[in-house]
Design a protein that fits this description.
The protein is of the alpha/beta class and 386 residues long. 42% of the residues lie in helices and 13% in strands. Helix 5 (122-130) packs parallel to helix 7 (164-180) and helix 12 crosses helix 13.
């Protein structure tokens, strides 16, 4: 096998990994032998399948309710009210928190922390690499990853690292892979890796551990690693490697991106501005083809863009994805128009996540948000009305 792609823990396990699906789609379209693995959902379920020391009433109750709580998140029963949802998630997190790890790691459904290591210290990430047996996910690595390495002997292992919550586990996983194969090329890419490279300008600070850190979109690079030429654009994502029934969501969520970067790109706190990322819109037709891609779950479309541009929202209002959808949006006059919002609703829009940031105009101006408080109020009222 040429390439093994892995999405490391820990990220909220409600949908398949969009980035890996795009890379898998490119490799599939070019006939490259590969495997794509969501080690996040698999790793979390592996931990939840282990017995815990239920030495107090809270933990015993959480352990006894575990299967019912997982089923309620998948069926939607937990979403009847905030109380039911909070109880289900809290009890699942209680079981995860009782998983032993030599490095003092604490796992939840949305995060991984450590009492002895920090994901923002390179020496701690290097320690996680050198001592994978101290990771809370070591048992999963041994039972799931090791057989894949032995059976398929991939030339390249690619790790998609997008969030700090993944960093410690990702480096432990890289170290685990290196222990079992000195010849395999370990490549890390993703949003967090891009931020590291562009923010520090140091290239690969983990040389000698990780063979390559790749910044920006990975389609062209993954083809080059496979010995193929091409930009990889226009290929629909492949979600078939990710069993939709594993995820903790009552709807099968399909993550898609209609752009790279941010069309606004002026907010002072945004890494897209700090890193000088260029904005590139993907044609809507190409995006919507992803809904019909291999293995696409397609019951709820999640647009992963930093912000849905006004032009994209207009296109969606005219030609929706054919399924309920949601995403992030900026406060704009467009979203204060009741007729436009009703058109969005008809297209399938069920939620807009609005980046309002502050109720203080001075703070908004300092942040470079480019919005007025009165506009935020008008938009909120109009969105609620729709």
């Amino acid at each position: 096998m040429d390439i093994l792609l892995i999405h490391p823990p820990v990220v909220k396990p409600s949908e398949p990994p969009a980035g890996l699906a795009r890379l898998a789609g490119v490799l599939r379209a070019h006939g490259v032998s590969h495997l794509a693995l969501d080690a996040n959902i698999e790793g979390l379920l592996h931990l939840l399948g282990r017995r815990v020391a239920a030495d107090d009433t809270w933990t015993r109750r959480a352990a006894n309710h575990l299967e019912g709580n997982l089923a309620s998140l998948r069926s939607g029963e937990a979403f009847v009210g905030i109380g039911q949802y909070t109880r289900a998630v809290t009890e699942i997190n209680r079981v995860l928190a009782r998983q032993p790890a030599a490095a003092g790691e604490l796992v939840s459904l949305g995060n991984l922390t450590s009492r002895s290591r920090s994901p923002v210290r390179s020496r701690d990430l290097a320690e996680a690499f050198r001592h994978p047996e101290e990771s809370v996910f070591y048992g999963y690595f041994r039972e799931r990853i090791a057989p894949l390495l032995e059976e398929h002997a991939p030339r390249v292992v690619g790790l998609s690292l997008n969030y700090l919550s993944q960093a410690l586990a990702a480096f432990a996983l890289a170290g685990f892979v290196r222990e079992r194969s000195l010849d395999v090329r370990i490549v890390m890419g993703g949003g967090l890796v891009t931020s590291w490279i562009r923010g520090t300008g140091t290239g690969n600070p983990f040389e000698g551990l990780v063979d390559e850190l790749h910044e920006g979109p990975g389609e062209e690079r993954i083809l080059a690693l496979a010995g193929r030429q091409g930009k990889g654009t226009g290929c629909p994502p492949d979600f078939s490697p990710f069993p939709a029934d594993l995820y903790l969501s009552p709807a099968r969520v399909l993550p898609l991106s209609a752009s790279q970067g941010c069309y606004w790109g002026k907010c002072a706190f945004c890494p897209e501005k700090a890193e000088g990322s260029r904005y590139r819109a993907v044609p809507l037709g190409e995006v919507l083809r992803g809904i019909e891609g291999e293995g696409a779950p397609g019951r709820l479309v999640h647009f992963c863009d930093n912000a849905l541009s006004p032009a994209l929202l207009e296109s969606l209002a005219r030609q929706g994805p054919g399924a309920p959808w949601y995403g992030f949006a900026r406060v704009t006059p467009q979203l204060a128009d009741p007729d436009f919002l009703r058109a969005l609703k008809r297209s399938g829009c069920v939620m807009l996540k609005l980046g309002i940031e502050s109720g203080d105009q001075g703070v908004l101006d300092a942040l470079g948000k480019g919005i007025r408080l009165e506009d935020s109020l008008r938009v909120l009222e109009a969105v609620k009305g729709a």
